[in-house]
Amino acid sequence: MSKDTSSMIWDYLVFVIFVLASTFVAVYSRFFGPKEKTKADYVFAAGKVSTAAMMLSIARGTLGVRSFLGYPSELFYRGSAMWETLYGMVLAYPIVCFVFVPVYFSLGITSVYQYLDMRFKSRLVRCLASGTYVVRQLLNQGVTVYTPCVALNTVIGIPYWASIVGISGVSIIFNILGGLKAAILADVMQGLTMIAISVAIIIQGCVEAGGFVDVFNISKKDGRLDFFNWDLDPTVRVTTTSALIGQLFMSLSIFGCQQNFVQRYCSMDSQKKVTRTLMYNIPVITVLFSLSWVVGMVVYAVYSSCDPLTSGYIKKYDEILPFFVEDRFSYLPGILGLFMASLFNGALSLNVSNLNSLATVAFEDFVRPLPCLKGMNDSRQLWSIKFIGVVFALIIMGISFGIGLLEGVIESSMLVTSATSGPLLGVFIMALVIPVANWKGASAGVIMGHIIILWITFGGLTVDKPPAKSLPLNIDGCSNSSFNDHILKVEHRALSWTPTTTPSPFTIYNDPLAPLNTTRAEKLDPLTALYSITYMYYSFLGCIITVLVGWTVSYFTASESDLYDEELIHPWARKMADYFPGKKRQYVSKREDSTRKMKRSGSTAANLATSSNSSQLANSTKQDEDNVKSGTVNAGYSPDMPMEEERLSIKVDTHGAIVSNNNYLKLTEL
């Protein structure tokens, strides 16, 4: 699968130009665009990103570069079962809109894990969640950076080290010069390029296969299109059931609990805009997600009678799409370079976006609370976040180099990435919708969820799972004219490890022709059956275990000290609280005691004014009095809050006591 170097001059030229164009986005954002004067400008893009750009950025962050290569090869060699994960993605959007966003947006937080600290009054819970996110994203980004390097090395001969250093170096430039806005602009440019390339591949494939109807019929006839398999066996790799349930919980964890997505929500200027953007994104993600599968259909239709893998022209599943571009677009100089640049920039844009979020989380949750950094001004905070981003970029670069050297570590890292979604989602569900949940239950739930899921995950690595039949491949139609003349066979089929780029979190095969595992649980002993559970259920199991353990521990350890502001749980949960097990929920703003039945007079504000807080409320306007009666007034900036622009919410309880939404301390007692 190689050309003469002299014939690839245009490909190299286009590749370099496109990479430089992406780098210019960061330069433009820094020197020609609006200046980033504050941390808020860097972290939240100052709320100046359009809805359309945000939609495409969220969609790009959802799919990723591995999907661009992985979905076509998934359909070619394994069929369309994985496409049905779309059901879970689509269902996740409205749930995030109406359950997660209303609570997040009203708090004005910088790190989404800061919410857990506010809800549970525990830095332990906050650090457990944010630490999970940081470790998972570092490992995941190491794989993301390395993924396009395989294709770049195979197709146009760029060494692995050069690709890794290139992606990491440009990411550092983006991190220093840009910010969230630069990351979103890179996402938009990269997303549009991938769409254009996908459409070009579909058109070329349909022309060669005889039209889209023929493409569909060939794929259907050969078993590539197989939907609505409701098999409940948890050991089958992918079914409609596991795709729906597993991806729903995975997507809720990604869209609702990951900093890189919540950071985008909070960068918008209104909650209504966030909801509108996410709901509009449903058709966008449906089209973009399906586009890669249509690409797989046309590639299969073209090669249905002569599989390049079986015939020895490629070594791995995920080389099928680069092979198609090199084989069928040879008449267009530079198109292969554009395709490779798209892979390079795809990894780049995701790396930039995640570096921004990782640095923000690390600073807010681990660095800023240090006593020696108290009183740090906004400018120093901004440069601290950028410095942390550079450190993370170097760590990711090191992980990427390790991926190319240590095969055992890689599979483990990808398994960890898959296994951590459930516990992370579980602790947020406890915080949002389970009123009785406290920090003891949340901590116990997260820890137990991680232990059990990681035990199942790594246990699965030790199980000898007997293979089953894979989808058939055909080479009966191969001839000297099947592929372009400049395409060469590989000298031998190497079985050395390379990371998969399929959407599977960890399905890695040493032999590219190894059949799929569809072993059924009834043929296995109980422990082997447990280890054989498909990875599609890991997020679901992790979430359920975390919630059940956390809820149980909270039920038996609840105390008066667990009181928190009622605004920190979803309004629906407050209304349904009486139906939950345990004592009736009490909040700092609504204490139940012997005086609760006393009717409050219409002169509540005057009564407060005569208390020890009279100096604060004596000059209140009529609007302030109305706010006091309703239980809420506004105060100025609190140094404990993440940004100068944010305001502290003051609650007035049924005793007439002022209670802080941030530190939950009762300031006065009548």
Automatic annotation (TrEMBL):
<feature type="transmembrane region" description="Helical">
    <location>
        <begin position="415"/>
        <end position="437"/>
    </location>
</feature>
<dbReference type="GO" id="GO:0006814">
    <property type="term" value="P:sodium ion transport"/>
</dbReference>
<keyword id="KW-0406">Ion transport</keyword>
<keyword id="KW-0915">Sodium</keyword>
<dbReference type="GO" id="GO:0015293">
    <property type="term" value="F:symporter activity"/>
</dbReference>
<dbReference type="InterPro" id="IPR051163">
    <property type="entry name" value="Sodium:Solute_Symporter_SSF"/>
</dbReference>
<feature type="region of interest" description="Disordered">
    <location>
        <begin position="590"/>
        <end position="641"/>
    </location>
</feature>
<feature type="compositionally biased region" description="Low complexity">
    <location>
        <begin position="603"/>
        <end position="621"/>
    </location>
</feature>
<feature type="transmembrane region" description="Helical">
    <location>
        <begin position="192"/>
        <end position="216"/>
    </location>
</feature>
<feature type="transmembrane region" description="Helical">
    <location>
        <begin position="90"/>
        <end position="116"/>
    </location>
</feature>
<feature type="transmembrane region" description="Helical">
    <location>
        <begin position="278"/>
        <end position="303"/>
    </location>
</feature>
<dbReference type="InterPro" id="IPR001734">
    <property type="entry name" value="Na/solute_symporter"/>
</dbReference>
<feature type="transmembrane region" description="Helical">
    <location>
        <begin position="236"/>
        <end position="257"/>
    </location>
</feature>
<keyword id="KW-0812">Transmembrane</keyword>
<feature type="transmembrane region" description="Helical">
    <location>
        <begin position="535"/>
        <end position="556"/>
    </location>
</feature>
<keyword id="KW-0472">Membrane</keyword>
<comment type="similarity">
    <text>Belongs to the sodium:solute symporter (SSF) (TC 2.A.21) family.</text>
</comment>
<feature type="transmembrane region" description="Helical">
    <location>
        <begin position="444"/>
        <end position="463"/>
    </location>
</feature>
<keyword id="KW-1003">Cell membrane</keyword>
<feature type="transmembrane region" description="Helical">
    <location>
        <begin position="160"/>
        <end position="180"/>
    </location>
</feature>
<dbReference type="GO" id="GO:0005886">
    <property type="term" value="C:plasma membrane"/>
</dbReference>
<keyword id="KW-0739">Sodium transport</keyword>
<dbReference type="InterPro" id="IPR038377">
    <property type="entry name" value="Na/Glc_symporter_sf"/>
</dbReference>
<keyword id="KW-1133">Transmembrane helix</keyword>
<feature type="transmembrane region" description="Helical">
    <location>
        <begin position="12"/>
        <end position="31"/>
    </location>
</feature>
<protein>
    <recommendedName>
        <fullName>Sodium/solute symporter</fullName>
    </recommendedName>
</protein>
<feature type="transmembrane region" description="Helical">
    <location>
        <begin position="329"/>
        <end position="348"/>
    </location>
</feature>
<feature type="transmembrane region" description="Helical">
    <location>
        <begin position="383"/>
        <end position="403"/>
    </location>
</feature>
<keyword id="KW-0813">Transport</keyword>
<dbReference type="Pfam" id="PF00474">
    <property type="entry name" value="SSF"/>
</dbReference>
